[in-house]
Amino acid sequence: MPAARPRIPVNVIAGPLGSGKTTTIRHLLAHRPEGERWAVLVNEYGRVGLDGALLDTGDDTGGVVMKEVAGGCICCSAGVFFDAALVALLRQRPDRLLIEPTGLAALSGVLDTLDRPGIGEHVDVRSIVCLVDPARLDEALHRPESRDQIEAADVLLASRSDAATAEQVDRFDAWVGGLFPPKKHVGRVLHGRIDVALLDLVREREAAAHRAGHGHEHGHDHDASVGSGDADAGGHGHGHGHGHGHGQLLAHGAGEDGASGDVVTHTHASDDVSSIGWVCAPELVFDAQRFGRWLHDLMQLPSAVRLKAVVHTNRGWRSFNHAHGAGEVRASGYRRDTRIEVLFDGPLPLPADTLERVLRTYIEPAEGAPG
């Protein structure tokens, strides 16, 4: 009888929106053991998959396999797509799988899936890592999904602590010291630079990872002018009342098959959060300076929560990552298309077609076209 295959180590990297999960995963991928092939499963609330693009380094060595589940929380509305993506990655037998749920997802559903017969026998759930920004501790504790992530974590890290005041960091330390049961590891992390060894701090669990339980009581609305053609994007309508009544938010100028649309708009909304995103043809080139200023202005809106983008600019391909008044711009290895997504508390501050018209003003004229 053939020997059973070893179980695949799995780590969950969790945390509220803007806590630094993507930056942390970039660091972990860059410092994975030589010769190891890792997989990453990314979940995003918005319908435009951005984290996969932000994690793309342009390295074609095959050392990292990635899948995205966009358009909902993998703990609920996008759960069936999470299951399918998870099974597809496990069948590729990576040396390690990292799961990054959206900051709006509870971990209970994710952990239930990892424990499920047919999957649980093939995975070894190791350290569950949660990042929390000390400057936004009250906000995190106010949201049930963030509390669920904190409850499930084995490793709890204060992220972006360089941007917090000494009082906020002290309050975070005092709060962590009062948690029961205590975490396996508590620390601070800057720019995502965590020790890869923390991923294996928890091995051979004696009991299932703790979960507080969580249920979304909101409906979701989704609109898209044309499907992006991304097999992992989208996925809605599981246990929720979904509507598609926001016709006025549909992008204009796109053909039914998507062939004539050089800019495709996607929107996604629940009772308390909304998102708008765009997928643009790769040949479109944006003015880096003016476009960057517009992104900055968007993030100054009172309801703006999170912005991610990978953009073909006149200064090359650039990634933009903004949250809570801080932003990062870096060169990007991604080349497939331009992708932009912004999350807001509550409804969109402007109609989607208005935002798209503004977006188009930052596209440079094609060579030979009138200026």
CATH topology of the largest domain: Rossmann fold
Radius of gyration: 20 Å
Going by CATH, what is the homologous superfamily of the largest domain?
A: P-loop containing nucleotide triphosphate hydrolases
Specify the structural class: alpha/beta
Secondary structure blueprint with pairings:
Elements (H helix, E strand, L loop, with lengths): L7 E7 L6 H10 L7 E7 L6 H5 L8 E7 L8 H13 L4 E5 L7 H8 L7 E10 L4 H6 L1 H9 L2 E5 L6 H12 L7 E5 L30 E5 L17 E2 L19 E7 L3 E8 L7 H12 L4 E10 L2 E8 L2 E6 L6 E8 L6 H9 L11
Parallel strand pairs: 1-4, 1-5, 2-3, 2-4, 5-6, 6-7, 8-9
Antiparallel strand pairs: 8-10, 10-11, 11-15, 12-13, 12-15, 13-14
Would you write up a description of this structure?
The chain is built from nine helices and 15 strands. Helix 2 links the parallel strand 2 (38-44) and strand 3 (64-70). By secondary structure, the chain is an alpha/beta fold. Mean pLDDT is 76; it is low at 214-260. It is globular and about 60 Å long. The strands form two sheets. An eight-stranded mixed sheet has the order 9-8-10-11-15-12-13-14. Strands 3-2-4-1-5-6-7 form a seven-stranded parallel sheet, with helices on both faces. It has two domains: 8-191, P-loop containing nucleotide triphosphate hydrolases (Rossmann fold), CATH 3.40.50.300; 220-236 and 251-360, Hypothetical Protein Yjia, Chain: A,domain 2 (2-Layer Sandwich).
